[in-house]
Structures are given as structure tokens and as C-alpha cells.
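Continuing the series of single-chain predictions for the mutant panel. This is the parent chain; the variants come on the following pages.
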Amino acid sequence: RGLLAGVLLVLVLAACGGSDSPTATPSPYVPPGPAWSEAAPLRSAAASSRKRVGTAVFSSGIASDPVYAGAAARHFDDLTAEWEMKWDPIETTRGALDFSGGDAIVRFAEANAMSVKGHALVWHQAVPAWVGALAAPELRTAFEDHIRDVAGHYLGRVRAWDVVNEAIDDNSYGLRDTVFLRGLGADYIAEAFRLAREADPQAELIYNDYNAEGMGGKSDAVYALVKGLKQRGVPIGGVGLQMHISAAGFPPVAEIAANLRRLGALGLKVNISEMDVRISALPGD
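Parent structure:
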């Protein structure tokens, strides 16, 4: 069990930024010995509880490293693209769309009976450089085209999208100061969800954020945001709680449960979207 937990911890790579998220591209993990291939598949345990268990991957890892690809295929039934379905890698040059990385991940998932969660349509840290130079009318056109192009490209091949990622500021708990807020106004979040629904009528649409797992200022702000979207009829179906936590200190379990209950009471599904547990601060060798 210990070795298997280690495999899970390293494979569940954070799929986006945030103050506690990794930013560098990690090397593929090589498990100690054959434990990953001998242990009972995590996906079987998840299925028995009517849940999915997922991991984030790079297309280069599943293409070139059989250990990385083998562990992913054996133990997980849901995949998220670590980077390659975000705006910057897809459209580094305006008008030149490159879906090759995301397509490779989707093909791998389909070949291994896995579902796919798309990540992420709108995130301020994965915006192509050319977007920042656009005047407001051009920005709106590019924003709309991007969501329609990407969600439309993967129509019928992803079960869900993280539509907007990390829009809440860590200090003020208002909306984060981003190119989208400055150029499009506060309603850009609702617009993104409506555009995503227009492009994909079936996918579950999710708002995703970090440091909002327990009760507190940021989780209250996320709750208020998604509650407001629901009340306005915006087609949001779920909330992603990234759950970047430390084993040496984490939100009380009762607070996490209370937060899950209040989000669920809005009619939203909750996705533990990027869970990793840091152990370096624990005592011992």
C-alpha cells in the first residue's frame, strides 16, 4: 500500500498553477521495483465506489516512457492534460492552432478505456503573449474564438472542462486582476461558461481553484462566485478543489466536509482536481 500511495502521489501532478502548484515540467517518475504493476489497479477500487480516479499527464511521457504510460493506464480511468490543452500551447501564434499534444492524450485515453477532463479553457497563466497586446474588441473576439475552437475540437471526446481556472485573488478574495478582467469586465466568467456550453452541449462545465478546500475567505469567495453563476442561470455543473495540501498541516476534515456539503447543496458536483500531499515537512527520515 505504501509503494502504491507513492506512485499515486507523484503521478497526480498539479494540472495548473496557484501558489502551491509546481511550475517546472517534472521528469517522468520511475517507481522503485515492480510494485506499480503488481498492485491491484486503483481504477478498480474507484469503480467499485462509483467514482473516477485520475491523473495529469504529458503527451511526451505517455509516448516515450513505458513505465509512465503503463502506470497511468493500469491505475487510472480519467486523464487530464497537464499543459497541452491550455490556450498558450494550442495557439502560441495567433491563428495557428496546434492540437497535437492534447489529441495524443485523448487517443491514449480512448485506447485505455479512460475518460478525459479538458483543462483549462481560461487561465491567466497560460495566455499566449500576443493576447496581452489586443485592444478590448479584439480581445473579446479572440476569447470567444478560442473557447469555441478548443471546446468544439474536442466535442464528444471529453467528459468535462475546467472552463475558468483560478479567477479569485488570494488576498482580496475579489476577482483576480487578469487580462480578462481588465479587457472584458467581471462578466467574462459567465461568458466563458456560456460559450463552452454553446460549443459542447454535453460536457460538464467546472470552475477550478486552489486554497478553497476548507472554510475561510477564499472558499467563501469561490462559493459566492459559483452560487451567483447558478442563480443567473449560467451553465456551471461543478467545482474543482485543487487540494494542494501538506501532511504537516491541512484544513480540518470537518471544514472540508462542510465546504463540500454547501457546494453540493447548490446542485454542483465537486471534483478533487489536482490532489497532492507534501510530506517533506514531516519529521523522520
